[in-house]
Specification:
The complex is a heterodimer of chains A (420) and B (299). Chain A has 18 helices and four strands. Chain A has 420 residues and is an alpha/beta fold. Chain A folds into two domains: 277 residues, no CATH class; 107 residues, 3-Layer(aba) Sandwich (D-Maltodextrin-Binding Protein, domain 2). Chain B has 299 residues and is of the alpha/beta class. Chain B has nine helices and 14 strands. In chain B, the strands form three sheets. Chain B has a six-stranded mixed β-sheet, sandwiched between helices. In chain B, strands 2-1-4-5 form a four-stranded antiparallel β-sheet, with helices on one face. The chains are: A alpha/beta (420), B alpha/beta (299).
Chain lengths: 420, 299
């Protein structure tokens, strides 16, 4: 047991003390604070540069002759920084000006015999979405007013026309959550799913890399002459796993502090995230469970694969199949975010290599009976156990194997060597 | 009877890596283990360390089989450098020392002592990859010696070192032997083996083709060398009966002969060609024996 902790400590400390780890962690902390305060930062930048708050003037060619003033009134009533102004030039001149870039856009307005407003917005910019929308909204209200006058309706009468119906959705499926819960859950699940995905992929390849490095630098020979390869493997997996958990806890705390200290409120998002309700509490617990299990599953696989190569350069190629598995898991769960009740999502959630992401998605988004996540957890535990047992056998031989091994066929060779 | 290898055979599939190996290394002695690349040396070492199991025969250390429990008593220096390139020398040695059962404080003391002794104290806080090849080898040797092992397995300990450093390391290793350690030592440098080892084995393609004490090995080889220095042409001596091979040089020639009788014939033949300046009958060097047994392709 003593050797186990020495290897564990070494795997943990040598990584934790490494420059790359410290820099990555510091960088991530900075990014988290930056993101949490992004709107504040943008506001400050805009205050300084003065952009975003400028008064822009829209040139309007109005054939009816009565719309410009109403549009102007409507826009200013809406608190917009946009003002409409009767154009002095003809439509053709303005079109030329737009295409030459002298002005951004202009609007031409007319009213037909039915009293319907026809508007034509001319611009060069493909990305101009908000301005036309605002103008359209304003014109819509003007048209409503005009029609109301025509029908001699009062303002209150017009209001009643637009009274929304009271619509409520109720899902009687036993696994469904209410729409409100679902929206809350979706964000939380998405963030955590991403964390699990990133962490598993990152730390698993870190392990494979570490093992291959120890082999290529031949430290392995010395290590396994004082500690059994199996102990070495599990100590390494556990050591780097603890490092991963530490890193994620650091990020979690950072994120929490960053959001608490920043004034930014993302509607329906971050604020719900931390108003720990029953839903998010259990989701967080599941996230932790699936992270740990997912990590061990992939880390054991990574250690096994890492033991087969003798040069660090070959690691990426060797762990490719593993990376594919986790990417597929991510894609399935990402598509499942919008509809977690899809058939293939349900089936995939029991497949051990997909379960960490897919079952977590389902358990976070749906009200599942307890046995479903438990079954997936049991399947994963069993797989980890089998993989650990099998991995240990491969590892025993793999670490002694040198040469151009780059394919999974070497697993057989490694087991053979491990037995001897 | 410290380290005992009895009738050990190791097969990988159809390939026999080590075939019926027998050797005994006594306490306080040093055993030379020679062989060309791929002869089965590393496989033998791995079997001694317990990393591989023998198909036949057994390996014992003080009467017990070697396991992880005995690992603190063993010091192993692998042929290729086995250190973390990115780790600092001290951290690395503490880690390896702890793995061999040392306490951290003891490890630190030992590290200071050995770094001082090998004159590399200034490298204590450097990363291994920053060191020269020779200095890396010194660190490697420290890793094998620092926990004061009773059984030392040294695979090419002097590779990459200059003559001054070779002497320094030789001294350290002979000190260990004098303090009662059992040492198994492999090298391609026959002169080192000749100088350090009382007993030796040469293995070739897994088979032990020569073994015994240095003196017996030399004596049983039979052939001797005759070194003649002369200003005259010695080429007609090549055909003297009993001469196995000749190496001519500017100063004269070295003849490998079947037995001592031939030396007399050579002397008279040389004197016929003209006066000679030097005549000597030499014992065969280990190098000669190795080449004769293992084959010229290795030299």
């Amino acid at each position: 047991m003593r050797e186990f902790w020495i290897i564990f400590k070494q795997a943990f400390a040598s990584k934790a003390k490494s420059k790359s780890f410290i820099i990555t962690t510091a960088l991530m902390i900075a990014v988290i604070f930056l993101l949490a305060n992004i709107s504040k930062i943008i506001d400050t930048v805009q205050d300084v540069t003065g952009t975003g708050d400028t008064q822009s003037v829209l040139q309007v060619v109005d054939t009816s002759g009565m719309l410009v003033d109403r549009l102007e009134a409507q826009l200013s009533a809406g608190g917009s920084n946009l003002t409409a102004e009767e154009a002095k030039e003809s439509e053709k001149v303005l079109t030329d000006k737009v295409s030459s870039g002298d002005i951004d856009s202009f609007l031409s307005l007319s009213v037909d015999e039915q009293g319907t407003i026809h508007a034509n917005y001319t611009t060069m910019s493909m990305m101009d979405f908000s301005m036309p929308q605002r103008i359209q909204d304003a014109l819509q209200s003007i048209q409503t007013e005009m029609k109301a006058e025509e029908l001699s309706l009062t303002g209150a009468e017009v209001q009643t026309l637009f009274t929304p119906i009271q619509f409520e959705q109720k899902n009687v499926s036993p696994s469904a959550k209410s729409e409100e819960e679902l929206n809350q859950a979706r964000f939380l699940v998405y963030v955590l799913m991403f964390v699990i995905y990133m962490a598993v992929i990152m730390y698993a390849s870190m392990i494979a890399m570490d093992v291959a490095n120890e082999k290529s630098s031949r430290v392995m020979e010395i290590l396994i002459s004082s500690v059994s390869p199996v102990k070495h493997m599990f100590a390494k997996v556990l050591g780097i796993g603890s490092l991963g958990i530490l890193q994620i806890i650091i990020y979690g705390i950072t994120g929490f502090i960053a959001l608490k200290t920043s004034a930014t409120e993302v509607p329906g998002g971050f604020s719900d995230f931390f108003s720990i309700k029953d839903v998010s509490m259990s989701t967080l617990v599941y996230a932790a469970v699936f992270f740990v299990l997912g990590y061990f599953l992939y880390a054991t696989l990574a250690a096994l694969l890492g033991s087969l190569v003798s040069r660090a350069e070959d690691v990426q190629q060797m762990i490719m199949p593993m990376t594919m598995l986790i990417v597929v898991a991510f894609i399935i769960s990402a598509t499942g975010l919008s509809n977690p009740e899809l058939g293939y999502v349900t089936y995939a959630s029991y497949f051990p290599f997909f379960a960490p992401l897919v079952m977590f998605l389902r358990v976070g988004m749906l009200d599942l009976p307890m046995w479903e996540p438990l079954l997936a957890i049991a399947i994963m535990l069993l797989t980890i156990f089998v993989l650990g047992w099998f991995g240990a056998r491969v590892y025993r031989g793999g670490v002694l194997m040198y040469g151009p091994s780059r394919s999974l066929k070497d697993i057989k060779k490694a087991i053979q060597l491990g037995k001897e | 009877m410290a380290l005992q290898i009895e009738n050990v055979t190791k097969r990988f599939g159809d390939f026999t890596a080590v075939d019926q190996l027998n050797l005994t290394v006594d306490k306080g002695s040093m055993y030379g283990f020679l062989g060309a690349n791929g002869a089965g040396k590393t496989t033998t070492f791995r079997m001694i360390l317990g990393l591989l199991n023998a198909n036949e025969g057994q390996i014992t250390w003080n009467g017990k089989t070697i396991s992880y429990a005995t690992s603190p008593e063993i010091g192993y220096l692998p042929e290729e450098r086995g250190l973390y390139p990115k780790m600092k020398v001290e951290d690395q040695l503490i880690f390896l020392g702890e793995l061999r059962g040392m306490k951290k404080a003891d490890a630190k003391k030992a590290i200071d002592y050995w770094l001082e002794r090998f004159e590399v104290s200034q490298n204590k806080n450097k990363k291994v990859e920053e060191l020269s090849k020779g200095n890396q080898q010194k660190i490697q040797v420290i890793a094998a010696l620092m926990h004061d092992p009773k059984l030392l397995i040294l695979d090419e300990p002097f590779s990459g070192l200059d003559p001054v450093n070779v002497e320094m390391l030789k001294k350290a290793i002979t000190d260990f032997r004098n303090n009662g350690a059992t040492i198994l030592f492999s090298s391609h440098r026959m002169d080192h083996v000749e100088e350090l080892c009382e007993r030796l084995s040469i293995i070739h393609r897994g088979k032990q083709i020569v073994s015994g004490s240095l003196r017996d090995v030399k004596r049983s080889f039979g052939r001797q060398n005759v070194r003649i220095r002369s200003d005259h042409d010695l080429s007609n001596l090549d055909n003297v009966r009993g001469v196995i091979s000749v190496a001519h040089s500017v100063e004269g020639a070295i003849f490998q002969i079947e037995d001592e009788e031939v030396a007399n014939d050579l002397l008279s033949a040389a004197l016929q060609a003209g006066p000679i300046r030097h005549f000597e009958i030499e014992e065969p060097s280990l190098q000669d024996i190795f080449i004769a047994k293992v084959g010229k392709e290795y030299a």
